[in-house]
Amino acid sequence: SWENKCHSNAQTVRGNADRRVDFLSKSLQTGSTALLRGLVEGQRILSRAKRGWVWNQMFVLEEFSGPDPILVGRLHTDLDVGSTPIKYVLAGEGAGTIFAINEITGDIHAMKRLDREEKAEYTLTAQVTNRDTDQPLEPPSEFIIKVQDINDNPPQFVEGPYRASVPEMSQVGTSVTRVTATDADDPVYGNSAKLVYSILEGQPYFSIDPNTAIIKIALHGMDREMREEYLVVIQAKDMGGHMGGLSGTTTVTVTLTDVNDNPPKFSKSMQNFVIPEELGIGKPGGKVKANDRDIGENAKSTYNIIDGDEKDVFEITTDAQTQEGILRLKKPLNFETKKSYTLKVEAANIRFDPNSGAPFKDTATVKIAVEDSDEPPIFSKPTFVLQVNENAPINTVIGTVTARDPDVTGSLVRYFIDRHTDLERQFNINVDDGKITLAKPLDRETDMWHNITVTATEIRNHSQISRAIVAIRVLDINDNAPEFATEYEAFLCENGKPGQVIQTVSAVDKDDPIQGHYFEYRLIPEMLNNPNFTIKNNGDNSISVLAKHDTFRRQKQEMYFLPIIVTDNGTPPMSSTNTLTIRVCGCSREGIVQSCNVEAYVLPIGLSMGALIAILACIILLLVIVVLFVTLRRHKNKPLIIKDDEDVRENIIRYDDEGGGEEDTEAFDIATLQNPDGINGYLPRKDIKPDLQFMPRQSGGPNGVDVDEFINVRLHEADNDPTAPPYDSIQIYGYEGRGSIAGSLSSLETASSDSDQNYDYLREWGPRFRRLGELYSVGESLGFLWSVI
C-alpha cells in the first residue's frame, strides 16, 4: 500500500495556501493506504486513513521556469516505518530524464520545462524495493502525470487568407463566408482556448458574429459598378476576449459579383451612315453599339430593327466578340430609286432579372444615306435564248440583246462577244444595237447548242462591264442521208435453203425530224431482178436480205456485193446507196459457219498458209540475229588507228583494257610506270599506228627509277619522236598486271583475228572462264551457220 503526499513547495508561503489546497485535492485519489501530509495554515496535520484510497494521477504546470526543479508529488508506503531499508524506484515515460525520484523520501521532481502542446501526459510505474537486496517489497503500480495548461498559444487562422464573393445589391444580413481559427491550448481547462471574433477593418460594410465567425453584409446597396472588391481584417482573441488574452488576425477579400442591374445604353440616340449603292448583299454597311456597365453574360445584348421604312432591305446581327450590332444588306441598293433610309434599332439584354418583369433595353434611330456609284450596264434579261437554222447563210440575224446604263447620266452602251466563249468566231455582234449575226455556217449534227457571253460596256467608263449568257440553239434541217447502222458483212452457207435470211439491215440518220425517222429500202434499178438475192421490209425501219436459191459455191464465186438504196422521209427526201458484202462459206449440217476461205480447197493436204508464214518469219528472225552478231564482232575487231580523215586537234583515244584477273594485286601500283618488263622503259604509243618493224625488243629494265625522271624521259622522247603528230596528244602508259595464269585478255595489240583462234583452251582455265569459253564457242557456231546460209 502507498501513501501519496503532494506538496506545491516545502517553502510555500501562507498566502498560497488556498491554491495549494486546491492542487492537493486534485491529486488525492482512493487507494489501499494513503497518508496526506502537508502544510496547511502553517501547522502540521497528521491523519491516518484506511486502505480505501486509490491514486493514479499527478499534475504539473507547463512552462515552469523556476531555478529549482518543481516538486510534482511524493510517494509513500506504510512499509516505511524506519526499521526496513526501502528504496523508491521510478520507471516509464520520461523517468530519469524528465522526472526524477528521491529514492529515500519518494519525492518526484520535474527536471525540464514541459509543454502541454507537445505532450499532455506521461505514464510512469512506481515500485518499492529493499535498499540492500533490491528485492521488490510490493508489486509495481502505474500512475499518470498530467501537464496542466497555461495560455501560451495565440489563435491561428490555418486556412487564411480567405477569398469570398457575394452578389452586389444584397440585403443586409446576407451571409458572405465563415472563418475559423484554432488555439493549441487546452479547450477543457480554463478559457485559454475560448475564442471571440471581431472586425478590425471592413466596417461599415461587413459585420461578424463573435462566436460563429460568420461574416455578413452590414450596408445596404453595395454596387459593384462603384466598388468591386473589399478587404476585411478579422481578429480572433482567446480568454473569451478579456484583457490579457492572445489574438490572431487574418484577411478576407470580398468580391461583389455582377447582377444585371444596368440596361444597355446607346451613346447617341441618332446615328448616321453613308452606304455606297454598289455594296454587295450580306456585306456590312455600319456598326452600332449599346454600352452596358454590367459584365459577362449580364452585359450581352441582342440587336433588332423594330421600325423603319422598308425594313426588309437591311438586317442587323450581333457580333459575339465586340457586342456590336452590324448592319448588313438583304437587298441591293439603288440610288436612282431610293436615296435614304431611316431605321429604329433596339438593343436588349439577353439575360434579365425575372423579378423586374422585362429585360433591360434601349433604342436608337439610324439614318442611312445611299451614295451614288457608277454602276455597270444592266441587261434586260440575265440569259438570252436564240434560235437559228443549221446551214443558214452568213450574216443571218439570229437575235438582239439589250442593256442600259442605270445611272442618272445614262451613258451609251457598246456590245462585244467574249471570244473565249466563241473560239471559232462563228458569231458577230453589232457594237451599237446588240444584233447577233452568223459568221460561219452551223451544223446541228456537230453542235446543237452554242453558249456565248456578251459584254456591255459604258462608252464613258470602259471599266464598267456587264455580262450576259446567250444560248443559241441550232434547228435541224434534212441535210443528211440515211446510211447503214454499221458496215455489215453477211455469210451465206453453201448448203443453205432458198428464202433463208442472210442478214437483217437497219439504217441511221444524223438528222432529228420532229415526226421521227422512216426509212425506205430498195435495190438499185439495175438489180431489181437480181437472180441471187431479194429484200423484205420488216416494218420497223429494217429489212431482211433473203437468198433465192441454194446453188452458191465458193469455187464458183466467193463473194457477192448487193447495193441497197435507203431513203428518209424528210423534206426534201435524202437517200444514199449502201453495199452489203455477202461471203459464201462452208457450214456444218446445223448451219454453223466453218470456213469462208478458198484455200481450204487449194491446200487440202499438207501445211496450211499460216504454218508456212510462221516458218518464214522464224527464218527471217534467225538471219537478223546472225547479221547483228557478225556486225558486232567486226566492230569489236576494228584496230585502234588514227586515220587522217578522223584526225582532229586535242584528240583523246579511249579503249577498254581488262586487268590481269582476281590474282592481280599490282594492277594499280604506281610502280608500273617504271615498266620493269620493257626494254629501257619503252612503252608502245597508243595514239598512232604501231610500226612493228621498228618496235624495240623488250627486256628487263632497271629497278628503282624515279617516277618524275621516268616521265621526263618519256616527255623528251615524245617531243623528239619523228613519228609523233605535230600537236599535243595524250600519252597513255599501260601496264598489264602480273600473276594471272590466263595472261592478257586484251586484243588491242594482237595481230591475229578472232576467227584464227581456238577458244577451247578457255574451258581448261577453271570455272571462272567457263562462261567465257561458252560465249566464244557459240560465236564460232553462229559464224559457221552464217557461212552455210
Automatic annotation (TrEMBL):
Give the principal location in a single coarse category.
Answer: other
SMART domains given for it?
Answer: CA
Q: Which domain of life is it from?
A: Eukaryota
Localisation per UniProt entry? Cell junction, Adherens junction; Cell membrane
Task: Give all residue intervals belonging to the Cadherin domain.
Answer: 77-157, 158-266, 267-384, 380-484, 484-606
Topological type in the membrane: Single-pass type I membrane protein
- Which GO annotations describe the biological process of this protein? adherens junction organization; calcium-dependent cell-cell adhesion via plasma membrane cell adhesion molecules; cell migration; cell morphogenesis; cell-cell adhesion mediated by cadherin; cell-cell junction assembly; homophilic cell adhesion via plasma membrane adhesion molecules; morphogenesis of an epithelium
What Gene Ontology terms describe where this protein resides (cellular component)? adherens junction; axon terminus; catenin complex; synaptic cleft
Molecular function terms from GO: beta-catenin binding; cadherin binding; calcium ion binding
Gene3D superfamilies listed in its UniProt record: Cadherins, TCF3-CBD (Catenin binding domain)
Segments crossing the lipid bilayer: 601-630
Keyword annotations for this protein? Calcium, Cell adhesion, Cell junction, Cell membrane, Glycoprotein, Membrane, Metal-binding, Repeat, Signal, Transmembrane, Transmembrane helix
Q: Which PROSITE patterns match?
A: CADHERIN_1, CADHERIN_2
Specify whether Signal is a keyword of the entry: yes
Q: SUPFAM superfamilies per the record?
A: Cadherin-like (SSF49313)
Q: What is the documented function of this protein?
A: Cadherins are calcium-dependent cell adhesion proteins.
Q: Cross-referenced PANTHER family, in alphabetical order?
A: CADHERIN-23, CADHERIN-8
Name the record gives this protein: Cadherin 8
